[in-house]
Each structure stands twice: as C-alpha cells, then as structure tokens.
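Hi D.,

Good news: the full-assembly prediction came through. Inputs first.
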Amino acid sequence: MSARKSQESLTTRLLGSDGAVSVLVVLLGFLVGTILVSLVGRNPLNMYKAIMQALSGFNIDNGKMNVRYIGETLNYSVPFILCGFSMAFAARAGLFNIGGEGQYIMGMTIAQVIGLLGPTVGTLHWVLAIIGAMIIGAFWGGIVGILKAKYEVSEVVSTIMLNYVALYLSRIICLQLPGATTYKTANYPETALLQNSLFRTITNNSMLNNGFFLMIIAVVVYWFIMEKTNLGFGLRATGFNREAARCSGIPVVKSIAISMAIAGAFAGLAGGIVALGSFRYGRVLSGMDNYGFNGIAVALVGNNTAIGTMLAGFLFGLLKNSQALMQGKQIPKEITFIIQGLIVVFIALRSAIAIYFAWRNKRQLQKEVLAK
Amino acid sequence: MDYAIEMIGITKTFPGVIANDNVTLEVAPQEVHALLGENGAGKSTLMSILFGAYNADSGTIRIHGKEVNIKDPNVATEIGIGMVHQHFKLVHNYTVTENIVLGMEPKNRFGMLEIAKAERRVAALSEKYKLEVDPKALVENITVGSQQRVEILKTLYRDANIIIFDEPTAVLTPQEIDELIEIIRRLRAEGKTIVLITHKLKEIKAVADRCTVLRRGKYIGTVDVADVTEQHLAEMMVGRAVEFEIEKAPANIGDVVLSIQNLSVADGTGHLKVKNLSVDVHRGEIVGIAGVDGNGQTELLYGLSGLAPVAEGTILLDGHDITHATIRERIELGLGHIPEDRQRHGLVSDFPISENCALKNYYLSPYSSKYGLLDYEKMEEDAEQLITQFDIRAGRGAKTLAGSLSGGNQQKVIVAREIHLSPHVLLVAQPTRGLDVGAIEYIRHRILAERDKGRAILLVSFELDEIMNLCDRIATISKGSIVGIFNQHEVTEREIGMMMAGSKREGGEA
Amino acid sequence: MSTLIGMIPSILMIVSPILITAIGGMICEKSGVVNIALEGLMGLGAFAAAAAHVLLEAAGFGVPSIWISLGIGALIGCLFSVIHAVAAINLNADQTISGTGINLLSDGVTIFAAQILFSADRTREFRMGMQTDALGIYPTAYIALVVVFIAWFVLYKLPFGMHLRACGEHPHAADSVGINVKRIRYIAVLSSGLLAGLAGGCIVLTQTIQYTSNTINGRGFIALAAVSFGRWRPAGVTFAAFLFGTAQAFAIIANNFPALRVLPTEVFNILPYIVTLVALVVFSGKNYAPRANGKPYTKGAS
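Then the structure:
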C-alpha cells in the first residue's frame, strides 16, 4: 500500500515538475504545427524529414550523409542559447528582457565596426571585437535596468523602443563603414574572423566557429554567477521579492541595473559571434534577425536554468537549420515561427497545471474529511 | 425558537487545511451575536460562506427557517445578508456614493448613470441611520472610520437585515470603537440581526448578547455573554489558561542609542506623513508608538529603516548620523528591523529558511569568502541552530521554503534572524499580527528578553493592549506627530485613546 | 504655416491606427489585464484585411471590399485575442508571457498564411486602398474619433463602464457586489483585440498596398506606451497618440522642410521611438495605473 503511494507521488511529482511541462509544451507545439501543415494540404512528414536531416546530416530521401548540417545546427544554436541566457539572467532577477534583439544588434554592429576598422593583429582583433560587442550590449541592457529601477519605466516598453532605435542606429553606423552598400560592407580582414579550421574540416565546411567555445564559457559563467556568488544571491533575492531584498539591505537599483547589463552582454556577445563567425562581411540590416525575440521562447522553455536553456537553444537552432530544407519540400519556413509562438503561449499551461494539482489536492482532502 | 440564521454542519476545506469542520451556528433575530476565535480558527471562512463568497463542501443554511443555497454574494444580498469586510472592499478612486451604489446604480431611461440621484439616496440613508459620510468625497481621502461607515452603508443600501461585521475594530481608535458600538446598538434597535466576528474580548463584553466560539475549525460552544468573564472566553478560545499580562522585570535603562530629531517623512505620493517627530530610545527599554493605522507609523519605520527617504530631520544611531545612510549601512551599524508586512519585507518566500536567515549578512564572512563565493552549508548550519533555539516548526529543517511555513513560524524566522544579528536597536512593527495565541506569547517573551539584555527597542503596534503590556514608555502618534510621551504607569488607555484622536494631555514629555 | 496645415491629413492618417489601438489597450488595462499582444494583433488584423481585400477586389467586389476587409481584420484580431483572454483570465498565466507568445505567433501565422495563399512572404498588392475625402483626410480619422467617443461614453457614463473600471482597481470589491469580474475582463480583452485588428486594417489600407513583416513595426508597442503616458484616460491617451504619431509622421513630413532633407531617413525612423522613450521616462505615470493591472484575479484570495 505504501509502496504504491510513494510510486504515485513520484509520477505526480515528475508530471508536475517543470522539466516535464517544458517537454509537454514543446510536443504540443509540434503537434499543432503538424496539424496546421496538414490542414493546408502539405505533408507534415516532410517537416520532420527536414528536421531529422538538420539534426543528423542524414537525408532520408536519398540516403546520403552530410556532416555539414550537424555543424550548421550547432552553429545556429549559439546565438539562440546566448539570447536565451540573456533573457534567463534577467528573468532570474525579476525582469522581462524583450530587448535582447536590440542588445544583439548593437553587439553585432560594434563587432562589425571593430572588425573592419580595428587593429589587424592575430587573435587580438577578434577578441577586441567580441569584448566591444559585450560592452555595448551591457550598456544597451543597463540603460533599461536603470530606467526600471530608478524611474519605474516598464522594461517591456523601453526594451522594444530600444530595439528599434538599435536597428536604425545600426543602419546609420554601418552605412558609414568602408565599402558599404545598401545591404553589406566590405569584407573583413582575416584577423577579425572567428573561423576555426579544425571545425571546418570535420564538419565539411560548415560555419561552426570559435563562437561555440565562447558560448560554452558564457554558460559556465552564467551558472557560476547565479549559483555560487554573492552577486547571484542578491540578484535572485531581488528577483523573487524585490521589497524584501531591499529591506534586507541588498542594493536593489544596482542589482537590477547589473543584471540587465549582464543580460545585455550575453545578447551582445551573440550579435558579435554571428557577425564575425557566420559572415565574411558586415551587414547593413534591413530587418531584425529575431534571435533576440526567440531568446525569450528559449528561456521560457528552458525554465531559466543553465541546462534547460542550452537544450532549448539547441532545439531552436535545429529548427532554424531545417527551414531551408523545409522550404525546399514545400513547407513554408514560417511554420517554425508558429511552433515557437505556440510554445510560448502554451507555457501558460504551467499555471494551469498548478491549478489542476491544487484542485486535485482539494478534492482529496474533501473526500478524507467527509469520510470521517 | 425561531432563528434568523442557522448554519448546520458546515464543512469547508482548502488545500491542506480544514477551515470549518462540521460547524453549527444559530443566531436569534435582532441579537448581536459574536463569533470568537483566534486567527485561523475559521470564523471568517464561516461568514464568507454565509455571504456567498465561498461555497461550503457540505452542510445546510436556513434563513428565518427557510433553507437557502447561497451560491454567490448576489444571492446573499437578495436574501438580505450584508457584510462589512475587515479589509474594506472599496475602490480607492471612486466617491463614497459610487462605492455604495456600485453594482446597483440608478440609471435613466437611456441606461446612463444618474449619479446625482444616487448621491441623494446616499445622503438620505446616511441621515436615517446617523452614519455620517460625505457622498461626494473620494474614498481615498476620508478617514478609516468614515470608510467603515461607507462599508456599512453599502449593506444598508441593499436592504440588508442581517449584517456581518468582520473584525471591525482592528483599524479604529478607542473613540471610534465606542462610536461603532453605538452604531451596532442602533442597528439592532432598528430590527437588524448582527454577527460580529472578532477576537477582542472587551468588545464582546461591551455589545454582544451571545457568543459562539470556534477553535481550529471546530465548534466549541455558545454562551450568553452576560454570564461569562473575559477569562472564560479566552480559555474557550485557546483551550487552556491564557496569560493576560506578561510578567515584566523592572527596566534597566542606559543611555540613548537611537535619537530621532524633528523627523519628517513623505509617503509615495509626496504627502508628509511624519511631521516633525522626535523621540529617543535608550538601552534596555521598550518605547511604544501607540496609534491607529494610518497616522504615520508605517512611514516612520520606513524612514528609520531606510525604505523611504527622509524629508527633514535627523536620525542618530549610537551617535552616527544615519539620516541618509543606505539600508545596508544602517544594518551594519546595528539597526534591526522586524517589519510590519512580513510577506513583503521580511522574507523571500521562494528561499529556504537558511537563505532567509542570511539575507542581511550573506556577503560577509563566514558566509561569503573574500572573492564573493558563498558557503551555503554554513548558512544551513546556523539556520538549523536557530530553528532549534526558537522552536520553529519546519518540515524540512533549514531547507524548508519560507513560503510554506505558517504565519507564526514565519515570524519566528524573522525574529530569530534579527536577534541573531545582535542589533543595538530593534525596530519592531506589529510583531503579533495574524498569529495564534501560542506564537503571540512566545514572541512577546522574546521581545522582553531582548530588552532585558540591554537592547533598545522601538515597538509600533495598533493593539493598545500590547503596547500597555510590553512598553516602558509610550509615545502616542497622531497625524504624523507625537502627541505625548509617558511612562507606562503614568497613563491610562482612555488617555492614550484621546491622544490618538489628537488632543494633548498635560504632563509627560511632548 | 500653410505647410503645417497641409501636414494635418498625413498626421491624422498615421495617428489614427495608433489611437484606435491605444484606446483598446486602455480599455483592456482599465479592466485589469495587460495586453502587450497589441502588436501581434495589429499584424494579424492588417494581414487579414490586406489578404481579404486583394481577394475580394479580384473577385470584383469593388469599393465595399475595403469595408468588408476592415471588418474581417477586426474580427481576426478579436479571435486571436481570445488566446490571451483564456491564458490571462482563466489560467491566471503571466500576462506578459502570453502576450509575447501571441506576438511571436502573429509573425509566424501571417507570413505562413501569405506563403500558402500567395506563395510569397507578403500579400499580393491590391490595386486600390481607402480613398480620402474632400479634405484629404482618410475615413480612419473619423473612425478613430468615434472609437474615442464611444470608449469615453461607455467607461464614464454607463454602469458597465463603472463596473469595468472597478475590476481594474479593486476586483474583489467588484466581486463582492456581484459583478462578474471574469466576464467583464473577457469583454475588455476581446474589445482590445477587435480594435487592434481594426487598426491594423486601417494601416494597411491607408498607408501601403500590401502586408509585409515590416508593416506594423512597433506601432503596437507605441500604442501601449501611449496608454501609460496618457495615464489611462481617454483625453490623455489621445494626446499621447498624437504626440507619438506626429513623431512618426515626421519621416514623411520632413520632405517639406529643405533643411531636414539632408538627414538620412533613419534619423526620422528613430524619432518616434526616442520620443516615446523620453516621454515615458520624464512622465513615468506608474502611479496612475489601475491598481489591479496585470495581476491575475483569484476569487476569495483577498
């Protein structure tokens, strides 16, 4: 009797755990996406074939293997993961950072600037560019934090505004760069690139680059700060209960500004890595890359944890890499946007599940009481 | 006997707790019936069921002999049941009239609101029952007593015959309490049946005819108020003999530790709530700030603790000027604070007890190394010690999440943390609000123990008994200023009540 | 001076959709629900209106096609706002998350549908949009005026409006007098969806000839900012919408001032966003928000 009871509570606990909810939500998103694709008369199987190919490099239709897809999937994952951490870091401190996009753009822009105009010295060149990207990202995020902490300006609106400011500012700056046309600049000098020749050989010429390592380092730094340091403790307290943190002497304004700055640095890093890792020249943006926005979904699915966000970011990278393949099989690539949007909406299920469990407990208690 | 209200065999559960366990309540027509019990006994739940805010899991309700199914407040209102809530359900930026007629607004034939007509009706009602209000005033601008009258008028506007008062005197001055008792007597004379939810024994003796006692969700008994003493009622309420007055050792008073000079503090909207306030607290004494909620106590504590900026004046702690110091600086200089709102300011519900205990000093050794690395194990160790010392009931020890503790245990965690930091001055606000009698006794003993150890304690409480019982000196605050400071033995409750209302008394310090 | 007056029709054209959306957002927030999905809802409405109009125009419906399309846009906005309503009101979800989800969804659904219907990442261009009247003013301006008036009337002159505002300030007080808080909030959210969809349709039928992923470009958020800046009152929101809309209109109007023509267009593109940001900082009106704004309502949890 008691063995069954403890088994039941284990399944209940598993089902109620956040990881399970994330998996459920992702599956639901895919399910609805599949239904949608069939409803418009396309073959959902093609969608999954494309995803499989992007994941493993194996083309089911013709049985050929191309490792490059794996490399590209990993490469695409990097900015998703970093933007996910940007959002997650802010969320742990109680803030909703929708400004990842703008922070990403600024990071990319500065990286491009330093890439084209900086000192053409071996490793120093790209290191400077990356650091610059992180600093400007931190600045772009920090403004939001200060506006929120000191002036109570909602970070939801201020980040969106700054996203657009970043986009147009980026255009203004990049149009001044050497060799700029309406959509690109001159090529970077070799020293600015994040290319890694080992990666290129083993992944059959994919764009996978040093940015991958930078991402790993960033993840470790995230985890370390959050879980092991004073700073992380103060940030987490602020995120959970800002007033109690304040009353306990934790410098809340500073904490909020710092967490937004760090969040911005993550997104800026993503921008820098994309700029110097995946392209040989600077870009004059005409629209947003959307890594920043998707970072929101990544963090939500990953529940703001280190491992979860990495996995979620990888999933999104996978989806992105499969887009071109999908388009080739008559599936509009926007289905991936729809799936991502559905996932975010379904995250609302989390609270529904909590409500469900509360209702179940209540019924249980009622039965016990009335049986007396 | 024909009862006005019969609630028979009412059972109501919430996740994790049985709020009402087979409770029966019988109220005669035109009587004032008190419902007595500690915090958490189930009184509010029972009346919420009567008012339709909750639905009972099982049981029957009969009004004037007829069985009814009160599934929501609309049904209750139609039957003639009205409720004056403990936490007023008034829209702050609506007028008195708008609040009273909300949901039953007079309309013209186009369906448009007729506010003028509503105002006239309110004025007439106010006149009839002698409940003074200004129909056009904004609720956020009137006194708490007036707001309560608005709540009462809401029920009368809907022709309530049964009126439930939920802890009505918690927010009133002694004079306003007298006025309310008069109002209740008048309502009874007009034929209304009154149910009074309270834990204040004095008021039950003053105005109630009969009293039903609940304890931990169970029905204990019903008595005729005239036949019992306060002591007897208290024992029924708690289940054992209750200590009415605490034994206090004589004070051993040292020098001034906290000096508040001409302090002025504004609230969130910029209005000055503390005006030119001065009081000193010495080592080894408890100074009480007596007053009704809303006279600046909250802002005073915010200004002292650093939660709000000081507009004018000076605060000296051990000779240091902390007027504009950061909160952390004040804590480091020895200022302890047991806040009024423990959920909002005292604890992080999502943190375990160990981390809550370290909230104020996590960045110092031994919890934090030179490079900023945290030693969570040490936090747990220390927290376990505090749990034992302070008898905190926590299912998973130091790892228990603060949010899952009962109110009393949460307060104990906060008290434990503050005392553990060995502050020079302890600011204490409403330390026993919402706690059961056992926890209340414990906390009061602890506060006295700290005073005996030589700490300086500033106690703010809205419960006059608490102030009279614990404090060595009592300062009365009214409209943001101190109206008089007297030694405990030199002043009576009545006199404090008058000072709360603003009039000064001769003698003492002012 | 005459150039300034000559700019009024352009300004009105740009302000109207922002104002309509902002009023919708105001109604929603006054009932206690934050709706940051306005951007996505405008997009969905714009897409629906553009797609409907192209198809109806091709089918030979003539002028009525414009008005039918506008209605369809409003309806689609309303339909998708049901998602937010269910999430925020029934499931007590985080309203910011569910709003963001709808924005992401909108990006996907609109272009996806465009791909299916038109095999491109945008709708097919329609031939004729809305026509201006004798003064050069689009009907959308009058629509906006009517919307503002109706909103003001309902909120401040009818019992329903009084109930709605109470739900946003103190839902427990409203509940205690028998007001159905959930039902009112549903109506408010759906209204904001309807208005946002309508506004999206207005944009696409007056300012451009097709729907692309850049059509809305942040205007939904500018409308949201206008609600806050306008302190949640019809008059204030109208003023704010005019302020922000004028900043946006500058990119077009700048052509009339030779001195400004030298500056790159991007400078004018940035203007509305900077103005909004500065306005929010300088006039942060957090204290004026409805007290229960954004907080999920659970019965009896007072």
